[in-house]
Automatic annotation (TrEMBL):
This is Phosphotransferase family protein. Residues 19-215 form the Aminoglycoside phosphotransferase domain. It comes from Ectobacillus ponti. InterPro entries: Aminoglycoside_PTrfase, CcrZ_PhaseVar_Mediator, Kinase-like_dom_sf.
Length: 262
């Protein structure tokens, strides 16, 4: 995307700069005290997220002559959550709001997003893992996933964010909490999101209290499902960082997987 072209679309005196990120499709536009967050080819899902108050307000979308769609959101004056803040009840309550939203689920279904289940994730791992398949630790992880497949079946699927990293939670200067970066959202077991958040950020002794704020009882079924998805994500992370040639990150996730496995 040519930034000069974006400036022409916005009008006079707008200055556009890249916002960073892996895709290179996000921009910041500034005119005096006005500031917008622009993104190219966002999903129609963004409008529902905005209407639900889950992401900063969507101001407009414009279709370009080349077929690209540009969306503009209000610039959020605030900060990302710190890891220790992920224990806060407001995080639990916003995640529950997302998982309980029929509007989000209906939009995902309209976009023809196929549901993701544990068996599908396991089979995808078998297809995509390469040299890691010969790693005895990864083999143990895959065996655990296979043995638990029947125990983690769950039919009440919801919209899951899939990347509940603390950097994706934004707190505005007005104390409004948002969850951003929805490119990886899927229809799945809510334990996918809950498990990653609790395992990564909340001491186990506080899980029951956090789940109370979410509105869920800590049952053996939920614990099994949470652990299954965290083990699967750990294997995915080993694969990801191996491909990126980042040995320190690979070792971190190997150590983490080792702690998870029986």
């Amino acid at each position: 995307m040519n930034m000069e072209w974006l400036e022409q679309i916005l009008g006079e005196n707008w200055r556009v700069t890249p916002a960073g990120g892996a895709t290179g499709d996000a921009y910041i536009a500034v005119q005096g005290e006005k500031k917008l967050f622009l993104k190219r080819n966002t999903s129609p899902f963004l409008a529902v997220l905005s209407a639900e108050g889950i992401v900063p307000k969507l101001l407009w979308t414009k279709r370009m002559t080349n077929g690209d769609v540009i969306s503009a959101q209000s610039w959020l004056s605030g900060r990302k959550l710190e890891p220790l803040e992920m224990k806060d009840r407001h995080v639990a309550q916003l995640l529950k709001k997302i998982h309980a939203s029929p509007e989000l689920l209906q939009m995902m279904q309209k976009l023809r997003k196929d549901p993701v289940n544990a068996r599908g994730i396991y089979e995808q791992l078998l297809l995509t893992l390469k040299d890691q398949k010969r790693d005895p630790l990864v083999q143990r992880g895959l065996l655990y996933l296979e043995e638990q497949l029947e125990q983690v079946r769950y039919e009440e699927l919801v919209v899951c964010h899939c990347d509940v990293n603390h950097n994706n939670w934004l707190l505005s200067d007005e104390d409004e909490l948002y969850l951003i970066d929805w490119d990886g959202a899927v229809i799945a077991d809510p334990a996918l999101d809950i498990g990653m958040l609790l395992y990564w950020y909340v001491p186990q002794a506080e899980w029951e209290e956090w789940l109370h704020h979410y509105g869920l009882e800590m049952t053996p079924s939920l614990l099994r499902r949470m652990k299954w998805y965290v083990v699967a994500q750990s294997i995915v992370s080993i694969q990801w960082y191996t491909n990126k040639e980042k040995p320190e990150e690979v070792q971190y996730w190997r150590d983490y997987l080792q702690q998870l496995l029986p």
